[in-house]
Design brief:
Number of helices: 12
Helix content: 40-55%
Number of strands: 9
Strand content: 15-25%
Shape: globular
Order of helices and strands: EHEHEHEEHEEHEHEHHHHHH
Distance between the termini: 55 Å
Radius of gyration: 20 Å
């Protein structure tokens, strides 16, 4: 078995997939398998992937016959993976040459089942932002979930390494056409199983902003539904944890909705979808008061239930 399975998501990224694949095939840790899941691309992506696969036997290509969304891409990659550890890469991003080696060594030396690294955010204007996780090993039962809730680490699957055991034999839920908050939806399901977390204070992953991502609509009903479903999953998975973690999950679910309201999403649509995802009890006045305080509760409740004072929000 390979030491690490690198799972690459690809859909209509012919401009960028070569950069991604070059960064992966050149990893200093050579004992890896590279699984590329092409979600029914219609541009040059398939041909570029095939060219790389023809010259590197470590590359395995999975093709969807229809576009199923990023959540299903993750599912296909996880099911095909045979490595001891998994790492996720979006096909328009890249890895530092020693990314797999550094994260794998950290996992093995510390006996960890999750490793978190830093990442770079490369913007269209040429500027770069760097984000590093706290240098901390949390041995507590709920350490990984707590770190996520406290924003010490991001909810993204990328820039991390996971033990394959976190995914094996677990009834994980994936949904077709999930392309927004899909990493939150999946991470919330296996995060409670993480027993030891290691952070690597180095930027090992490069996330690139591209013009296509900027032009995607942020007001689609489907994207809103996936965000709310992910929030609901997070609340469910923290229901058995201590009160602090559960309340953080509930507070995040509440604030995510109001961020959408502030961004101009249709209030009636939000109320409808909140009810469908089982989050409605969080928006009662007593619930809002408990989690946000009286002043915010008055505003949030009024905006959510009537929209009467939305202009003050």
């Amino acid at each position: 078995m390979p030491k690490v399975s690198v799972l690459i998501a690809a859909y209509n990224i012919g401009k960028y997939i070569s950069r991604c694949l070059e960064s992966v095939v050149c990893q200093t840790l050579e004992d890896i398998e590279i699984i590329v899941v092409d979600d029914c691309s219609t541009d040059s992506t398939p041909e570029i992937i095939d060219r790389f696969a023809a010259s590197d036997k470590r590359i395995k290509v999975i093709r969807h016959e229809e576009n199923l969304g990023l959540s299903w891409v993750r599912k296909s990659g996880i099911e095909a993976a045979s490595g001891d550890y998994l790492t996720f890469v979006d096909g328009d991003d890249s890895l530092r040459p020693d990314a797999c080696a550094i994260m794998y060594q950290a996992a093995v030396s510390e006996g960890a089942d999750a490793v978190v690294a830093g990442h770079e955010y490369s913007k269209l204007d040429g500027t770069v932002e760097r984000t590093l996780p706290e240098r901390k090993i949390d041995l507590s039962h709920d350490g990984f979930m707590r770190s996520l809730m406290e924003n010490k680490i991001t909810w993204t699957l990328w820039a991390k390494l996971y033990s394959k055991e976190l995914f094996s034999g677990r009834q994980l839920e994936f949904r077709k056409h999930f392309n927004n908050a899909e990493d939150l939806f999946l991470t919330a399901q296996f995060a409670p199983a993480v027993r030891k977390l290691v952070s690597v204070p180095e930027t090992l992953y490069v996330y690139y902003q591209n013009s296509e991502s900027l032009t995607q609509s942020k007001k689609k009903r489907r994207d809103l539904e996936t965000m709310l479903s992910a929030s609901a999953m997070c609340v469910r998975m923290t229901s058995g944890m201590d009160d602090g973690i559960r309340e953080m999950a509930e507070r995040k679910a509440i604030t995510s909705v109001f961020n959408k309201l502030k961004a101009g999403y249709d209030r009636k649509m939000i109320v409808e979808l909140v009810g469908q995802t089982g989050l409605a009890p969080l928006y009662s006045f007593s619930s809002l008061s408990k989690r946000l305080g009286l002043k915010k509760a008055v505003v949030y409740w009024s905006v959510f239930h009537s929209g009467l004072i939305a202009r003050f929000f």
